[in-house]
Amino acid sequence: MNLFFFLMSILYGIVKFLHIDFVPFTYQGVPIGLWIAYFIVAVVEVVLVFALSMVAVIIIIYVFRKYMADVQNRIGPNRVGIWGTLQLIADVFKLIQKQDIIPTSADRTAFRVAPYIVFTPVILGFILIPFGNVSILNLMVVNFNYTILFLIAFMTIAPLGEIIGGLASHNKFSLFGALRSAAQDMGFEVPMLLSLVSVIVLAGSYSAYDIVTAQRYIPFIVPEILGFIVFFLAMIGRQSIPPFDLPESGSELVSGFSTEYSGMRYGIFYMGNFGFMALSAFVVAVIYLGGWEGPIFPGTVWLVIKGMVFIFIFLLSWISLGRVRIDHLLQMGWKYLLPLSVINLLISAGIALYLGGLF
Amino acid sequence: MMGRIQFPSTGGRGTDMEDKVIEVNFGPQHPSTHGVLRIKVKLDGEIIVDAQPVIGYLHRNAEKLAEMGAYPKGMIYIDRLDYVAALNMELGYVLAVENLMDVQVPERALWIRQMMVELNREASHLIWLGTHGLDMGMLTPFFYCFRERERILRIFDEITGSRLLYNYFAIGGVYSDITPKAIDMIKEWTEDFGTKLEEIQSILGKSYIYVSRTKGVGTLSAEDVLSYGVTGPMQRASGIKRDLRKDSPYLFYDKVNFDVPYRTEGDVYARFLVRIEEMRQSIKIVKQVLEKLPQGDFYNKKYSKPMLVRLKATGESYVPTESPKGEFGIHLIGDGSSIPYRVRIRSPSFANLSSIPTMLKGYKIADLTAAVSSIDPVFGEVDR
Asked: How many CB atoms neighbour CB B192 within 10 A?
């Protein structure tokens, strides 16, 4: 049962309990009071998901900064709030105060829109993550048959914002950043989708919910270790974090696609990146580690634990690795990841054919 | 509606689609140029067609300023040449002046100088290692390097009273003696710096990404090195085993035991290995100096401070020294007055930078930062 209907029925129950009489006309055969209830539930859920994803982003940025500081013999944020927990809030307020600088020769519309193209799909992606299964209630906002495809679609849109922002800035370094972003996305997109297809073949469904329930005995990481490696590397690549941070390229291309961005627009890029990190960690956990499945603890706890493990691996790679060169990266994508994912697809097709009952 | 997306122009040379080569200015304000280097790069996609270094953004007239005051007053300008290895710069000047005037220096002062110079070489190489890591996209080694450098700077602070620009070597000796506390600090440092260096080296050298990005990149052959006058670790990485500390020993370098690391590949990775090995050898030298440090005066009483400004000299002198960047020396000409007639600085980074076009042609943009940072240029010294 869906979270939506659950909240809906609670609301409806409250309405019935209080004996509130609605205006007695209907729209499309449904009483107007029910429509209002639907609307309220939808708003509540959107706010919940937004708050949840923002909290996830805030926690990740804090953990990242503390963890990175620890590795690098520094203290990290420790002034604002207890142990510096409110540093990000202070930073956001600082960034909002900054002057919004748009280069005169930039394409103003595209320049303004680009950060939101990175940020919005990431937040939307959280709608489709199945966060757990408490008896009859499944904690996902939307559940339909093609959730995993929509998830991947959202994750594909986000890097597009980097390309648009880079091209719109009218700066040569931004242009190189944008071109690199495009090349990198092409290199990782195909292997990622192919390894996703093999998961879909095994689970026999496009729904994230079904993919998780198919892993109640064996998580997909076991039969699809190749696919997992490919998908995981592709996920690091799609987030553009080191070692695959070519669109930004730290000191090399000044700051890549975001060279001309400052103030809150840059902040939105930044938050979008960390949101993307959380989203991709959850997606990997759902697809390959069996999402909420696990003994003793409730499902949501398991998903969060698995997601946090991946987030820490992402952070560790961010902290400890250097940047690969563009030709090495493309070679990796097309020469190694693509054949690996095809082999993985063949293997999982064989498993689905002969050992289909396992999943 | 989305607006029109404009491509950056190519500087008035035809439209973008017709002309594939675009010209990009790396610097002078660019995070990976180690100061104010500007490189005019012509790019065909990601590939460098041509690269020309443009310098002069940090010109401070050091030579002329040094020619305007008495001999000891030149020191403060020489200090600010290679500001991350100021003692090495001072040494070049002080040796040149002492050679010009036939000044006798007490043994203890010479040993102290040798130790301080080696410590400063370590500090300079640590900065190089950290920023090189940054240019390769790694943030973490930077902090490790600066943590270690901080210990060396604390030692300098204890001995000289300054952390960056010391003005410590004086004509006829050094300005202050080493304190017992400083000796303890140095001993402690020599004991565990080796393992720390190992740790920092493993972050870079054991990383497949780093090795694959630096092997075969920015190659300079032995002929290139000789024709450009490239010296120092870059030269030794290209297969020419020339270290002035061995070849024309000054101070007491002939009395300590150390090796000259060299490699034949001539690429960025070879320079990395040569510099790391040099740091190991420097620890060895510092250890030996601590053992051999004699008692006695730390400066020649004949050249006490009020005397210094009245020093007069005639003739020429040039003492080549091995600074962290390469051959550094000062050509002094005295005309019999108390002011030097000419102070000509032979700066290694300047010559090393001239190899940029050869080093970069045909490589990718990502190799530009790797190759430029492997030169280890410091612009105080390049522009003078």
From this structure: 11
Q: Which residues between 184 and 213 in chain A have a beta carbon less than 8 angstroms from any beta carbon of chain B?
A: none
Q: Which residues of A touch B147 (CB under 8 A)?
A: 73
| DSSP conformation letters of B61-80 | -HHHHHTTS-GGGGHHHHHT
Scanning B137-166 for CB atoms below 8 A from A yields 137-140, 143-144, 147
Q: Which two tokens stand for residue B322?
A: 């091995």
- State the nearest Cα–Cα gap between B132 and chain A, in angstroms: 11
- pTM equals 0.85
Residue A73: per-residue pLDDT: 86
Answer whether B206 touches A (CB < 8 Å).
no
Q: How far apart are CA B90 and CA B96, in angstroms?
A: 10
Query: What is the C-alpha to C-alpha distance for residues B365 and A254, in angstroms, rounded to an integer?
Result: 12
Which pLDDT score is estimated for A248?
Answer: 79
Instruction: Say whether residue A328 is in contact with chain B using an 8 A CB cutoff.
Output: yes
Alpha helices of B326-364 — where are they, by DSSP H?
348-353, 356-360
Contacts of A113 in chain B (CB under 8 A): 2
Q: How high is the ipTM of this complex?
A: 0.79
* Separation CA B219–CA B198 (nearest Å): 25
Do A77 and A87 touch, CB atoms closer than 8 A?
yes
Q: Which residues of B touch A320 (CB under 8 A)?
A: 138, 140, 203
Cα–Cα distance for residue pair B280/B278, rounded to 1 Å: 5
Residues in chain B where the model's pLDDT stays below 70: 1-19, 306-307
Give the one of A105, A108, A252 whose C-beta lies nearest to B365's C-beta.
A252
Distance separating alpha carbons of residues A106 and A35, to the nearest angstrom? 45
Question: In this predicted model, what pLDDT tens digit does every residue of B296-343 receive, in sequence order?
Answer: 888 887 877 766 777 888 889 998 999 998 899 899 998 888 889 999
User: Range with the lowest mean pLDDT among A52-56, A72-76, A167-171, A301-305?
Assistant: A52-56
The C-alpha torsion from B62 through B63 and B67 to B71, rounded to 10°, is 80
Q: Return the domain boundaries, chain B.
A: 63-383
Q: From start to end of A34-138, where are the E strands?
A: 133-134, 137-138
Instruction: Render B267-306 in DSSP notation, one character per residue.
Output: SHHHHHHHHHHHHHHHHHHHHHHHHH---S-SB-GGG-HH
Q: Does A99 touch chain B (CB under 8 A)?
A: no
Superfamily (CATH H level) for B63-383: Cytochrome-c3 Hydrogenase, chain B (1.10.645.10)
Domain boundaries, chain A: 54-358
A321 contacts in chain B (CB < 8 Å): 137-138, 207, 209
CB contact under 8 A, A251 and B213: no
Residue A243: cis peptide before it, omega within 30 degrees of 0: yes
Sign of CA dihedral A229, A234, A235, A237: positive
CA distances to B72, B155, B304 from B309, rounded to whole Å, are 6, 29, 10
Q: B6 vs A170: CB contact, 8 Å cut-off?
A: yes
Q: What is the mean pLDDT of chain A?
A: 82
> CB neighbours (10 Å) of residue B270?
27
Cβ distance of A72 and B134 shorter than 8 Å: no
The edge-to-edge listing of strands for the beta sheet with B38-44 is B21-26, B38-44, B47-54
